[in-house]
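Data availability (excerpt). The following record was deposited with the supplementary files.
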Amino acid sequence: MSYNLLKGKKGIIFGALDEKSIAWRTALRCHEEGAQLVLTNAPVALRMGEINKLAEAVNAPVIPADVTSMDDLKNLFDGAVKHFGGKIDFVLHSVGMSINVRKGKHYTDLDYGFTQKSLDISAISLHRVLRTAWDMDAISDWGSVVALTYIAAQRVFPDYNEMADAKALLESISRSFGYHFGVRNKVRINTVSQSPTKTTAGSGVKGFDGFISYAEKMSPLGNASADQCADYLVTLFSDLTRMVTMQNLFHDGGFSFTGVTPAVIEQMEK
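Predicted structure:
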């Protein structure tokens, strides 16, 4: 069901890879709610994924951008502003990558070159995106930026590896830049801490299927799906949440504030 919450709004969606990705599902919901979109991802991700299928479904151009390149980001925002004929109203940052995880490197034995790339792509990229928009004055007053994060920024999940450090940095950047963008343009910047979700990226974490089952048992409402996350993101891009900024918002069925449940205890006693 559409409520026209984003009618007339224009947004950039980072990170849609395939139909399982949260960014993909969010693009579909934003389009359904009346938004005009520009899609973007790294050139290598565009070759690996199916983004052209999404672009056709939401009638959006695809502008490649490496989030570690200021030139690419400037080209992206410049192209988006030209396509829309004006400023951007919302941005979704759904970007994350860990070479250490891919290579099976334990947290106590990280390759620091890989770690620097993880932090650069997964966290510092948000600062680059925001700085580019700031320098170009490309986001409308009362616009909204949301970055996807995970509770491993606050709690230890050993196999999440240095991505936990990256998410902590991502959340800090959203708060710090959120202050400056709020003062100047009333732009709000938040992070959403989503339930473990069966995306292509998430499935690369060791023991992921078992953890999804555990989180389901720990969450009074169960795990939030990618489509449910998309619904929530739509509200954060809309005018209904104009006074919400610099927050880390848990969208996890109550997992983040649940100590233990009978279902988990029962499983442990087996």
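Summary of structural features: Residues 146 and 190 are 5 Å apart (CA to CA).
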